[in-house]
Every structure is written in structure tokens, then in C-alpha cells.
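Structure catalogue
Derive C-alpha cells from sequence
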Amino acid sequence: MMRAVTNSLLAAAFLLAAVFCAGGPARAEDGERIIVDHVRFHGNDGLSRKKLLSVMMSRPSNLFKKNRYSRDVLDEDLDYLVAFYKQYGWLEVSIEGCEVAVDSAEGRADITITIGEGPRTYVTDVLVVGNEAFPNEVVLDRFDVHPGDPLNRVKNAKGAEAIARMYAEAGYLEAHVTPAVMVDKQAHEAFLDVTITENEQFRVGQIILSGFQDTQSFIVRRELKFRSGDILKYSLLAVTQRNLYETGLFRSVFVRQENSLLGDSAKKDVLVEVMEKKPFVFSSLAGYATIEKLRARAEFSNENLFGTGRGAGIAGWISSIDRGAEISYREPWTFALPWTTDVRISGSFREEPGFHITRYGGRVTVSRRFFGRGNVAVSYRHENSEYSNINIPDFAQRRKPRIRSVSQSLTWDTRNDPFAPSRGYLGSLTNEYALRFLGSTNQFFKTRARFRYYREVTEGSVLATNIELGWVDAGGGLEDIPLNERLYAGGPTALRGFSYRSVGPTNAAGAPLGGRAKFVWNVIELRQLIWRWVGAVAFVDVGNVYERADRISLGSLRSSPGIGLRIDTPLGLLRADYGFNWFPEPGERAGAIHVSIGHAF
């Protein structure tokens, strides 16, 4: 199996080249289409090659981008390099040589730049002038430049910004911070003067609400992080704006300070201006997916009941393998505390491989955000199920299990977009306990963990990875765990070279039994925008499902490289993936195609 994983990675590398390099390199006979192949530096003892390349346009070409060679552009790059060095204290730097070797036959250029850095200038003294609200040591601590440090104008500017932010947080919204540098060129010494003009300290005057028609004022005021008379802090305006927008009640939110309408020079009025959404929403969706085939969903909701911010809705769905309906209710502030309560009552029927299941019941979830990026939630599940058409001869469980469970989850999300992220990460951990003393017919513990990471490699190229771990434990082993509570793998989101739920333990008839342990890793998915709303991906998935957690091993992992197409439409992202089952076992196909909506993860 180690060989299988290795070969799959090699296959994925080939696929990446096929998908993203179909255009091939520029050729000399195409005119001036000569690409930059290598850039070398000599004499750059103080600054790394990576830092120098960061300010140049004439960078080496790579798999994702071909950079053309131009002498005019290179001359501008040399000027930028000199200015860049001077920002970091090398005031006598010079470009001592620049050689360009062009290979016309291959259409490539190698650039060699020789730099004479000269002596570096160091800071000998830092003086703060004009500060009354904060003592010198506090200001200098924020400035973070000290005698003996190399002259660094970039750091000086960041230090000045840090001081200005500190003043703004204390109500000095119009404070100005100016770092001035005096240089003794012969001694290579620099003297810094940090001049602060504090101006007036402002407090919050009137709070003016604008654009509110249906939403009651108390809904808005409970989200405010300031009151009249408080010191005006810019960060609290930004937090309030974000909180109001995330209620989902408004199309746009602007929170800004303005001059006092009462003419009070020591106060600033705060204007909270919104554009409300229509509270009544009806949505419908019809489409096709590999597993569900034809499917449709309709939902009607009121997201602002009586202007209180509460929400309620009803939804129904149907496809070739499932159908169901759900009623939901949301209370954004529970008992006047910033904890959101979601109540969902549903009933559904679904055809799974090996069995059919009818479920009805509900779930109550209480959750709260923290530190802007985190979310903590506690849930109670009350669900009754009934199995039918069971195609698993050795199945000996209750045909009508009742699940009564509590769970807690923790999530941290730094993604820039939950639907099409290009940077950031998502981490989550959920533990669920089904307990007999709550009335559950089956007692088990289930834990699920996942981590997703996204990084924009170049413009239009995103590198993504996703790891999911699962574990279910019950006193009587696998037989004590209901079929729908077991862990499965294979299908449109992971191990895409396999059919739905086909990876893991099976019985003699080939029906999936599910497992108690799961490890799935979308090792790499490279997403490349090709043209406007059309994109392509190349990916490698590995993983497996196990009867017991102690059987997880690297050698037992199944692997699946593949390629896919993405089409961004007004109705959502359409996805088609083909995954290769690189080493199929008896009875398995050599690959699978999956069509769905949205990214795989």
C-alpha cells in the first residue's frame, strides 16, 4: 500500500502538470516572449534572496506563472532594489553589475545581479516629543525601535502606526505621529525624533440610528459596544459594525463617527446606518448530483419575526434517494444573553447502501461566538429511527433505535470566505454522547475532528488540504452502534475514486458495514481559475475506514488522485470530479465520477 500511495502522488504531479501547464513555455520564435528562468544575487549579505525578489517584477518563472524578460522592467527593478536597501539602513548601497544571459533557442533568460551593500547605519538615540496622554516608556514600547537597532524606515512607519492606534483607542482620533530621521553619514548613525500631536480626546455623543424600519431599536442597541459618554474607541465601532452585519438582518451596515450635532467639540456623534433585508425569504433549488440524481429543495422563512431578530422557517426536499421536511426556529439572544439557540424538528426517509432509514425528531443547539473567530456549541438530539430493506444478513441490531444524546463542539474559523476560501483555515472538534439514562436505546461515544487549510499560491490559484478523523466507541463493539451512526468514506467529498460509502469494511455480499474509526485526508487540491467563471482542479485523496482504531496504519490507506472542472454560476459552484482508483481491489472499478454543487471541502 505504501507503493500505492507513492504512485498516486506521482500520478497527481503528472495531472497537475497536465491541467496547469497545457499552454507550455514561451518560445523565442514567438518574438520577445523570453521568460525569466533564474535570478541570482551576489553580495547580498544583509537581505535574503527571497526578500529581494519580493520587490522585483523580473522574478523566476514557475509552474503557475511565466514571467517575461524585459530590460526596461529589469532597470526599474534595480532602482527598486536600491530604494529597498536604503529603507533598511544601507544608505550607500549600489548595483555594481547586472548580467543577463539569454538562451534564444530555449526562450529563457538568466539574470545575475551584483550588489555593493556598503556600511549599515544604526540608531543611536530615540526622542519622543509632544506626548502628554502617555508617558515616554509606553510610547517607546509601542514604537519598538531602540538605540543600537539598524536603521529601518519600514519599522519606523509601523511603529508610528502602532502609536496612532494606541491614541485612537484612547479617544484621540485626530492624533498625528511623525517619525523624523537625522543621519550622520560619516559616523553611519541615525537619530530619531517621534513627534506626536495629540489634539482633542473625544467621547461618544449622540448615537443616531438610521435606516431601521422593521427592526426594533433594542435589537440594534444590544449589539453596540459603546454608550453615550464613553471614550470613543475606533476598534469598538468596527466590532459593532461586524456584529450588526452578522445578525443577518441587514444588507449593509455602516458605523462611523461624525461631528457633534450639538456643537460639542469634545464629543463625536456615532451614526449607525443600515439597509435592512426583506424579512420574508422564499428559495427553491433544483439540480442533479451523482448520489441523489435529480433533487429539489424549497424553503420559506421569516428572518426577522416582528422586528425582534428571531427567525423561523420551514423547508422540504426530495430526490431519488431521500425526502424530508424540517421546521426551524432561531433565538439570537437567549434569556437576554448573547447565546444563540437553534431548534430544528425534522422527519426524513433515505436510501443508504445496504439499508433504508426513516428518522424523525429534533435537535436543540445553544452556541456563542468568542474572539471573533471561534464558536462553542452544546446540543441535545432527540431522534427516533426505523430501518427497512436491510441488505446486511449479519445485522442483528434493534430495528427501531432511539437516540438521546448531548454533544459539544468547538470551532475556529479564519477563512476569508466560507463558500470559496482562498486563505485561512478551519478547525473543529465535536464530541457526542448517546446515554441510556437519557432514554437512548444505544449507548456510544462519537468524536469527530477536522482541519482545513487554504492558501492562495498565485492570483487565481488556491492550494487546499483537508484532514478528517472520526472515532465511535460502544461497549458491545461495532454491533452496538446503529448503522447510520457508524463511519463511512468514499464519494464526492473524499476518496473520490470510489463510489459512495464503498471504502472500509464490507460483508460477504459486498454491502458496506461502516466502521468505528475513520481517517480521510484530502492531501492536496490545487484549484486554478482558467477563464472568467471556469476553473479546474487536480487532487489527491487518501484514507480508509476501520473496524477498530488500533488498525489504522499508513500501509492500509486507499488512495485516489484525480482531476475536476468547476463552473461558477449565479446558482452556485457546479463541480464535476473524476477520481482514479489507482489500485482497484477485486470487484472495484478503476475510478468514479462525481457531480455536485460547491467545493468538496
Remarks:
- Residues 1-31 have pLDDT under 50 and may be disordered.
- The chain has seven helices and 25 strands.
